[in-house]
Amino acid sequence: MDVVEEHDIQDKPTKKKTKKPKKQPKPPHENGNDSMIEKTEPEHVDAPAEFSFPPTFSVSEIKNKQRRHLMFMKLKQEKRKQKVAMKKKKKKERDALGDKAPPKEVPKTIENQRVYDETTVNPEDEEVAFDEGTDEFSAYFNRLTNPKVLITTSDRPRGRTVRFCNQLATVIPDAHVYYRRGLALKKVIPQCIARGFTYLMVINEDRKVPNGMVLCHLPDGPTAHFKVSSVRLRKEMKRRGKDPTEHSPEVILNNFTTRLGHSMGRLFAALFPHDPQFVGRQVATFHNQRDFIFFRFHRYIFKNEQRVGIQELGPRFTLKLRSLQKGTFDSKFGEYEWVLKRHENDVCRRRFNP
After folding, report:
1. Span 309-344, pLDDT tens digits
2. Where are the domains of the chain?
3. Dihedral sign for Cα atoms in the order 157, 194, 265, 268
4. pLDDT digits (tens, 9 = 90+) for 115-171
């Protein structure tokens, strides 16, 4: 038995010695088929990229949400890298050409791609000057009347709408806030005319949020209906200044260049007194851009002889003109000068001014 065990023990190492070692792959320079390796290696590397982003690749076809999000982020990152690489390449070419480099391309924006509005007018035009001298606001601009504004709300206003009206009364001089008490506007307008008001401003609300404004010029109109959005009261604004004083503010009207824009600009200008009080250093701005009217109320501060800072006092809001009606408010038999149509929204985005 001992002999057999020794024999077995001696046989095992001999078997291990007889095993052939595994052949290790030779490097490319030792193998004669270098061309085959060079051809096969790029195909093996590029295969996953071609498989992950084929020419007809669509992320929406992936059913798994996490996988779809991952593939979308990879695709977005790849496009970003290609864009950066193209920018670097163009910059190198421009640096190499020096003064002979072609001019830079102007980027496409909403502003420079707008369709020119044919109703844009020159303020020095004789026809425009004649129309402005005989319109409903001519008495104000001839200094025959002083503005007096009545601000009211819809029936049963909520706290946010009431605070918004009170803050508007601090912005507009000689403005008075009255509760409506269920009266119809047709009954309110004669009372306003009898008491010497030149404007009636009605703030409407929906779900406790101000969403509309009716601005009626008295006694002969016109009446404008606006959609109100992005309302922020003073307490909701960060880094605001102290409450405004009773001084009459300056008024800035930007980009009211069309015939309709001229009417809107004169409508807003007639809300404020003729002569601003520069001691208060307060400015009310109506900025028209992309058919929206942005309202801001600032106070400017002189830091030194060359530098000036501004503080926003609030409130701020955005207006969108819905309709312009001749005369005072009349929802049934009123004659409308301009109405925003739903199917024209896409065209209006590309035009100048409202």
Report:
1. 999 998 999 999 999 999 999 888 889 999 998 765
2. 127-346
3. negative
4. 777 788 887 888 888 888 889 999 999 999 999 999 999 988 989 999 999 999 999
Do 311 and 241 meet the contact criterion of CB atoms below 8 Å apart? yes
Return d(Cα 20, Cα 319) in angstroms, integer: 88
Q: How far apart are CA 344 and CA 158, in angstroms?
A: 34
Percentage helix, strand, coil for the chain under 3-state DSSP, each rounded to 5: 40, 25, 40
What φ, ψ does residue 28 adopt, rounded to 5°?
A: -60, -30
Angle between helices 126-133 and 259-269 (to 10 degrees): 40
> What is the three-class DSSP state of 48?
helix
pLDDT tens figures, 291-306: 899 999 999 999 888 8
Closest by CA to 317, choosing from 299, 297, 300, is: 297
Give the integer Cα–Cα distance in Å for 274 and 293: 22
Contact 189, 216 (CB under 8 A): yes
Tell which CATH architecture fits domain 127-346.
3-Layer(aba) Sandwich (3.40)
